[in-house]
Amino acid sequence: KGIKTAVDNKEFFLVYQPKWNVRDDCLAGFEALLRWNHPQFGLVSPGEFIPIAEKTRSIIPLTLWVLEEVSNQSKLWQKRGFAQPISVNFSARMFELEDLAKQVQFILQKVGLDPCLLEIEITETMILEDVERVTDQLEKIRALGIIISMDDFGTGYSSIGMLDQIPLDTLKLDRLFINDIETTSKRTIVHAIITMANSLNLHVIAEGVEVQEHIDILTELGCYIMQGYFYSKPMRVKEVEAWVQEQRKVSYKSIE
Ligand code: C2E
Ligand code: MG
Ligand code: MG
């Protein structure tokens, strides 16, 4: 109940974290992340309120709100000549909606957004809960033209044996791999994941990239899309727009 009222009271807002393609040296999209500006407790992190929202099922209306907010933002940026895919995190609860694909499609149509500008992040655990049902729903969502990513890949329950059956475009390498990627053994694992992803025609994104050394190792291993504090923390809309302007200036300078 608390969360539904909070949505109505506009206490939630989104921050956007850029993804960077290092091979082409260009922006590769954003991930939308929820923040709660609580009237008493101040800023509450998703780590605290998402589990509660999941337990109470209010994560469903909340995520539908996120989808609409992101679609509107994306449409606005597209109109300004700045089209970038934005990803939205899904929780397992979303798949309890029989007509999930229809509801997502409805939002896209209402906003008039090109489906390829929307990306949905799922996790391995979600799929393992009910493989057939979730796969079926993902297929319908993907058929709309929406991109599907596997978040936090490789550290939770493994879905590795089903990767060829899950409708999927991208693997997001969990931050824990990147943390100690200097270690030879970790590097070997990451390399194997990237090689596997490539043979399955999946893109790979590294999460939690914080230092240049991470980028050097990852590119050497064949991963070219990065997300993390090295590029930017998640930002509010105004900050994103300023950041994008700044990136353009930098790249124009390097051309001159
Ligand atoms: P996630 O989807 O894996 O999001 C990435 C998290 O890593 C974000 O934390 C982000 O701020 C953080 N991060 C990004 N780069 C770095 C880095 O270089 N170093 C470190 N140490 N951290 C980095 P955040 O925003 O606190 O979100 C935490 C989790 O909450 C998310 O993990 C996601 O599972 C969940 N979440 C956030 N927004 C939503 C939402 O709208 N819906 C649902 N269902 N879950 C959400
Ligand atoms: Mg995510
Ligand atoms: Mg993640």
Mean pLDDT: 94
Q: List bound small molecules.
A: ligand C2E, magnesium ion
Return residue spans where pLDDT drops below 50 for at least 5 consecutive residues: none
Alpha carbon gyration radius: 18 Å
Structural class: alpha/beta
- Portion of residues in beta strands equals 15-25%
How many helices? 10
Terminus-to-terminus distance = 56 Å
Per the principal axes of the C-alpha atoms, what is the gross shape? globular
Textual characterization of the structure:
Strands 1-2-4-5-6-7-8-9 form an eight-stranded mixed barrel. Helices cover 46% and strands 21% of the residues. A hairpin with a 4-residue loop joins strand 1 and strand 2. It has 256 residues and is an alpha/beta fold. The longest helix has 21 residues, at 59-79. It binds ligand C2E and magnesium ion (2 copies). One magnesium ion is lined by residues 151-152, 172, 207.
Summarize the entry for a quick read:
Helix content is 46%, strand content 21%. It has 256 residues and is α/β, with parallel strands linked by helices.
Give the arrangement of secondary structure elements.
Blueprint: H1 2-8, E1 12-21, E2 26-38, E3 42-44, H2 46-55, H3 59-79, E4 86-89, H4 100-111, E5 118-122, H5 124-129, H6 131-143, E6 147-153, E7 170-173, H7 175-179, H8 184-199, E8 203-207, H9 212-221, E9 225-227, H10 237-255
Parallel strand pairs: 2-4, 4-5, 5-6, 6-7, 7-8, 8-9
Antiparallel strand pairs: 1-2, 1-9, 2-3
Helix pairs in contact: 3-4, 4-6
Bound molecules: ligand C2E and magnesium ion (2 copies).
